[in-house]
Amino acid sequence: MKIGIIGTGIVGRSHAEKLISLNHNVMIGTRNVERTLAETKTDSMGNVPFSEWLKDNPTVQLGTFDEAAKFGVVVINALRGEVVLDAFANLNKQNFDNKVLIDISNALDFSKGMPPTLLVRDGNSIGEQLQGILPKAKVVKTLNTITARLQINPLELANGDHHVFISGNDTAGKKTAETILKSYGWKYIIDLGDITTARGTEMMMPMWLRLWGAVGKPMFNYKIIK
Amino acid sequence: MKIGIIGTGIVGRSHAEKLISLNHNVMIGTRNVERTLAETKTDSMGNVPFSEWLKDNPTVQLGTFDEAAKFGVVVINALRGEVVLDAFANLNKQNFDNKVLIDISNALDFSKGMPPTLLVRDGNSIGEQLQGILPKAKVVKTLNTITARLQINPLELANGDHHVFISGNDTAGKKTAETILKSYGWKYIIDLGDITTARGTEMMMPMWLRLWGAVGKPMFNYKIIK
């Protein structure tokens, strides 16, 4: 399948690598292709410059946000949450018509120091706002409660015995997202309901940050015992 | 031990029953003793009038908020989160000096329909605000991510194979809270850190409400897989 990924960070790169390994065609979209390719510094999280990553992943195509959105039959939003709404407001919205848009973003504000605070509150999740900007897209919120490496390799932890959540208004859209999740190795998927339920998963981020501290590593996840 | 419980709702009653069964002395505090005893209606959640409950639990004492706080060596805040700060602002603060105050509250706003929305956001948890009002108390946030019945009977679900979280500034205070939790049957307790980490657990409430819908019952809990 042709999959467009919006965002060149660790989340976008992780999904690109995984999707290529699963024989999909992937285009990553960036705000400014030249600037992205010109970066020479490893970022504060230890991620190498994009051009260096691209050398190791030569089958991944690079384009603008609009080109990646147009390319994908399914599009993944892997932007940092705090820039999502501004970025999407400036995209060609028609590129998302009738497409599944998988939104993984978390709206964290790093401006006040660590740990970052959450910009959204109950009533205005990024997932809902994306659906509002793109009424013809099938927005599916998922994976945002999980660190990037585990998102694409759930079997690395307890052989996959933990949960991922999905939220979205469109049943077929959620089925498509579930198919991709299962191809990653996800065994246990909980459908929370419509896109307003993204409030639940987005507001788990402050807890995730504290658990990261308490557990001592980002490779952890929730299992719902019922 | 003498334990004061602030609040006459299902959470306060559940803990009172459990603590009495564990041979503690319990006083429940209410805003207005006469009014509480005069209630004759079963509430919207199906809870019988307090006086009726008290007949079945005759060893539980009833007093004002201040009397229950003064009575307890440990005090449990079992008020609805949306009234906590107003109620505590009007209490005699000295009754909490050097005492462990276990805060179970969740600040839910039911005024805009169901599901309720969360009043707090990242930066102002009820737990932190209580610690601010009562600087000499040892506030410990815990159990608010779990339905009342499971709070006091963790072994009813998967023989207790799931987690409860605690947050608080005072190590000895958290040890006291852990001792009570273990006496309830809790096997797995994660110490998240200081009282600011209550932001994490308080902001899980929107997720809890959606999981309740998805799971179909309130008797569920998180297990952290690491």
Please identify the oligomeric state: homodimer
Helix content of chain A: 25-40%
Elements of chain A, N to C (H/E): EHEHHEHEHEEEHEHEHEHHE
Q: Could you give the order of strands across the largest sheet of chain A?
A: 3-2-1-4-5-8-9-10
- Shape type of chain A: globular
**Rounded radius of gyration of chain A (Å):** 16 Å
Uncertain regions spanning at least 5 consecutive residues of chain A: none
The residue-averaged pLDDT of chain A reads: 97
Q: What's the number of extended β-strand segments of chain A? A: 11
Number of helices of chain A: 10
**What proportion of the residues of chain A form beta strands (DSSP E)?**
15-25%
Q: Structural class of the secondary structure composition of chain A?
A: alpha/beta
Biggest sheet of chain A, in brief? 8 strands, mixed
Greatest interface: A-B, 38 and 38 residues
What is the first-to-last residue Cα distance of chain A?
36 Å
Describe this structure in words.
The structure is a homodimer of 226-residue chains. Helices cover 37% and strands 22% of the residues of chain A. Chain A is an alpha/beta fold and 226 residues long. In chain A, the strands form two sheets. Chain A has an eight-stranded mixed β-sheet with strand order 3-2-1-4-5-8-9-10, sandwiched between helices. A two-stranded antiparallel sheet of chain A has the order 6-7. In chain A, helix 5 (81-89) runs parallel beside helix 6 (126-133). The termini of chain A are far apart. The model of chain A has no long low-confidence stretch (mean pLDDT 97). At the A-B interface, strand 7, strand 10, helix 9, helix 10 and strand 11 of A face strand 7, strand 10, helix 9, helix 10 and strand 11 of B. Strand 11 (221-225) of chain A pairs antiparallel with strand 11 of chain B.
